[in-house]
Amino acid sequence: MIVIDEQFRERLDKVKKRHSWPVALLAKTLGKPRCYVYRKIEEEKFDVVEDSGPAKVLSNSVIEFFENRLKKV
Question: Whole-model pTM?
Answer without folding.
Answer: 0.84
